[in-house]
């Protein structure tokens, strides 16, 4: 079944046994100080055992300054304790012969205000304020699954200030330092998070980038910061480790976001990234076939791949084998990136390859909080019940 999906492929320097990649999936299950837990090792190992070709970790903060950390209980790769925690994860995944890369992200303007230090404000491409809110803490179901109690407000984002050009260099250096620590922790490479509303996205999207210097005003300028990060990361980890760059039109605070100019802007972004130090690009969406452009039916991933000449990982709405195969039949990408199905069904690759009918569970956030795990890695679950404070005026 699905011969293209289950053929091997080389993405940058890494050989994948099949073309299925586990998407980076936010869980907020690390220790309060960002240390990965045994439960996380079990969670990732279970999906490696399930047959996935490669894993991209959940978004991980690489430094603890300038509003980099976005979520409570988000994992970090900042210090020796973080490295040791992630080493358990990478060892557990590698035991099944599966490569894993670390997604490095900077929250920018969409950070939980309780992650900021006293006196700090969020940073972004420009002086703006998101009109969205922090996800996953404002519903009764989520509170129940996480073991939280009490009144939980909708947590909104504070005003953000524009980064100076000197600070851009500092942030890019932070990505490079985090990447080097990720390699020390056993990762096979890193992904630079330029999607879903976070800092690098805030530069790439014309809606949030209002700059008039060399880092704004055109597709070429808008991706300049992302390219700087990728170059510094390449210099830090060398030529033999994978670098991917994730892109999207929508964000955690703008689920229906669309690039002005649609496919034409996407082609300009791709052309500007042609000489980027990343090996591959990663298109993120809710439905990769929907480009949100009324004037074109070309998938964004395909448009960017054609003008960049880069390998493309495609994410969005892939729920079965036929959906994965369609990515390759269309020529949109080199790998299919799958998220939600793997929360509840870690054996998803094996199941779709068998061709059998299967009673798929409807997606539920409870599988994010308490997913099936490998009990030989973690028993019973080593689950951390978060001690989150609902007072949004609190700072670290």
UniProtKB/TrEMBL annotation:
CDD domains xrefs: OYE_like_FMN_family (cd02803)
Domain NADH:flavin oxidoreductase/NADH oxidase N-terminal residues, every copy: 6-356
UniProt superkingdom: Bacteria
Residues in coiled coil: none
InterPro entries per record: Aldolase_TIM (IPR013785), OxRdtase_FMN_N (IPR001155), Oye-like (IPR045247)
Pfam families linked to this entry: Oxidored_FMN
Protein name (database record): NADH:flavin oxidoreductase/NADH oxidase N-terminal domain-containing protein
């Amino acid at each position: 079944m699905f011969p293209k999906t289950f053929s091997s492929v080389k993405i940058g320097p890494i050989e994948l046994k099949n073309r299925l990649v586990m998407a980076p999936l936010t869980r907020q299950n690390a220790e309060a100080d960002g240390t990965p837990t045994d439960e996380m090792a079990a969670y990732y190992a279970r999906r490696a055992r399930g047959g996935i070709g490669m894993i991209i970790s959940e978004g991980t903060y690489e430094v603890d300054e300038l509003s980099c950390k976005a979520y409570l209980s988000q994992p970090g790769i900042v210090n020796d304790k973080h490295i040791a925690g992630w080493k358990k994860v990478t060892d557990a995944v590698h035991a099944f012969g599966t490569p894993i890369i670390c997604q490095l992200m900077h929250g920018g303007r969409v950070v939980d205000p309780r992650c900021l230090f006293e006196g700090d404000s969020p940073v972004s491409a420009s002086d703006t304020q998101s009109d969205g809110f922090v996800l996953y803490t404002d519903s009764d179901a989520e509170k129940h699954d996480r073991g939280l109690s009490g009144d939980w407000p909708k947590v909104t984002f504070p005003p953000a200030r524009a980064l100076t050009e000197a600070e851009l260099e500092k942030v890019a250096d932070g990505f490079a330092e985090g990447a080097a620590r990720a390699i020390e922790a056993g990762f096979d490479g890193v992904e630079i998070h330029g999607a879903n509303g976070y800092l690098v996205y805030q530069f790439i999207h014309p809606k949030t980038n209002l700059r008039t210097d060399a880092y704004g005003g055109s597709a070429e300028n808008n991706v300049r910061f992302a390219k700087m990060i990728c170059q510094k990361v390449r210099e830090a980890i060398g030529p033999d480790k994978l670098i991917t760059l994730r892109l999207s039109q929508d964000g955690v605070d703008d689920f229906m976001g669309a690039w002005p100019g649609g496919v034409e802007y996407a082609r300009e972004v791709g052309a500007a990234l042609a000489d980027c130090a990343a090996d591959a690009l990663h298109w993120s969406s809710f439905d990769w076939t929907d480009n949100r452009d009324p004037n074109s039916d070309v998938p964004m991933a395909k448009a960017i791949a054609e003008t960049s000449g880069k390998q493309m990982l495609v994410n969005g709405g892939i729920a079965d084998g036929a959906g994965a195969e369609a990515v390759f039949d269309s020529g949109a990408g080199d790998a299919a990136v799958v998220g939600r199905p793997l929360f509840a069904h870690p054996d998803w690759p094996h199941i779709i390859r068998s061709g059998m009918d299967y009673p798929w569970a409807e997606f539920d956030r409870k599988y994010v909080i308490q997913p099936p795990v490998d009990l030989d890695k973690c028993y019973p679950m080593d689950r951390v019940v978060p001690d989150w404070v609902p007072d949004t005026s609190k700072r670290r």
